[in-house]
Amino acid sequence: MARVVSLYFPRWPTDRIRKAGADGTPPPDKPMVVIARSGSKRTVCAADDAARALGLRVGMPASKAQALVADLAMYDHDPNGDYAALDRMALWMLRQYSPVVTIDGIDGIVLDTEGADHLQGGEEMMLSGMVNRLRGVGVTARAAIADTWGAAHAIARVTSPEWTVVPVSETAKAVLGLPIVCLRLAPETVSGLRVLGIETVGQLSAMPRAPLTLRFGPQVGRRLDQMFGRAGEPIDPIRSPEIVEVSRPFAEPIGAAETIARYVGRLVKELCAGLETRGLGVRRADLIVHRVDNTIQAIRAGLAKPVRDDTRLTRLLTDRIEKIDPGFGIERLSLVAVWAEPLEERQQSSSLIEETVLDVTPLVDVLGNRGLRVYRITPVASDVPERSFKRVAPMSEETGADWQSNWPRPSRLLARPEEIEVMNVLPDSPPRTMTWRGKRRRIVRGDGPERVFGEWWLRDAEVQAVRDYYVVEDENGERFWVYRQGDGVDTATGSHRWFLHGIFG
């Protein structure tokens, strides 16, 4: 079943202006509005949060808004600029989240994320990640996911949560109480329905269909059917001239897995040929399946590095053919390189003895396309152990950095240091006994202390902070990395509590 995400940008004109960062753009705490002109009439068509807090509203005359707020920042409405920025946002979403993305009106984007949410940690993690990433670049957004475009569109626009996940097959329950303005009907149709006393989707869906069609036309019934999933509403994916795409229509619909795999192999060869003419390699490819019932399915294959190897790309796509439901048949297959990068050709060695270079990128690609999060650890310049590393992409370039320490480090570092009870002699002796997770251990060897100071330039609370680390071994030969908060003398340097931070393999 399709799962559709609707992203709604309630402050898009003002957010877009601030995001562009033009000279003189006011800070977020200064009220700003966008003014639309209709002949000699000037009205507010968008207002940011600061302006709304001062009582300014969309539709208000510009002169009244200026009279209410003396230092109001006013910009002329630029619908072409808003649409162009929305188009760029949709192309970014296409690369990051889903193979099927398009623009939804003048203030939204819609995505079909069927089979793609697992790459983001599930639907809730995907929606929260979208909203948070957009907030990080200054764009206010609300997101909803449901079984249909109409339901997701409505929930994103008339509910207050930043993101909403409607469980599968619970669309009707989620939309019956929503106002009819969310049905994407003409304003005069909404006004006419309200004259009849119809305010909610539930009331409208309970009305006889024939009188509604006779009075308001077929659009009311069509929007209801689309919202409840009784009528299809395909998403036509957005495309850019820079995107390399190949397609294969079929005179007779296909459906067998072997047939699909054969044509996928041919499309991959065509795509690689098109990429070669541009000197590119693919990083992310989408197989778009167009069924005869006017629905779309998609399979996404990601690669750690740009490649033009048709065998490798074919394998990644055909490994997931079982995810395709051909239904009554497939009438067209499209293969799109939504993310391509320049590919440097490697010169073949002329030496008699070839150097053996272990390339793990095929394995990384296979694991990544199965939904596993593959990463590599790289050093960071920090003496504090939990800050001395970070996760990077598995095939990212080497930084040349290394862990600079003459002291041994454990093979396993706990996600959070766990408090332990110890018996020791202050201030510098290692523990004599240690109780961890309810088990008391007698320490037979210990080495330390290794003193680590707080990073006062990052946090004021670490100006005097100290940790003393010890490597200890119990009577069973198990070795641990423990530390004491503080120097053992001055309580200003720490609480003198003990923690276990790592385990030696």
Brief description of this entry?
This protein is an alpha+beta fold. It has helices spanning 12-20, 49-53, 62-68, 79-96, 123-136, 149-158, 171-175, 187-195, 201-205, 209-216, 219-228, 257-278, 310-318, 361-369; strands at residues 4-8, 32-38, 41-47, 73-76, 100-103, 108-112, 142-146, 163-165, 244-254, 280-291, 296-307, 330-342, 376-379, 389-392, 412-423, 433-436, 439-453, 466-474, 479-485, 498-503.
Label this structure with key terms:
14 helices, Dna Ligase, domain 1, 3 domains, 505 residues, alpha+beta, six-stranded antiparallel β-barrel, Alpha-Beta Plaits, five-stranded mixed beta sheet, 20 strands
Q: Considering DSSP H and I runs of 4 or more, what fraction of the residues is helical?
A: 25-40%
The average pLDDT score comes to 89
Count of all domains: 3
**Lateral arrangement of strands in the main beta sheet:** 15-16-17-18-19-20
Shape descriptor reads: globular
Described by strand count, sense and barrel closure, the largest sheet is: 6 strands, antiparallel, barrel
Predict the CATH topology of the largest domain.
Answer: Alpha-Beta Plaits
Describe the protein in words.
The protein has 505 residues and is of the alpha+beta class. It folds into 3 domains: 234 residues, Alpha-Beta Plaits (2-Layer Sandwich), CATH 3.30.70.270; 99 residues, Dna Ligase, domain 1 (2-Layer Sandwich), CATH 3.30.1490.100; 92 residues, no CATH class. Helices cover 28% and strands 30% of the residues. The chain contains 14 helices and 20 strands. It has a 6-stranded antiparallel β-barrel with strand order 15-16-17-18-19-20. A 5-stranded mixed beta sheet has the order 5-6-1-7-8. It has a 4-stranded antiparallel beta sheet with strand order 9-12-10-11. α12 runs antiparallel to α13. The longest helix is centred in the middle third of the chain and has 22 residues. The radius of gyration is 30 Å and the shape is globular. The model has no long low-confidence stretch (mean pLDDT 89).
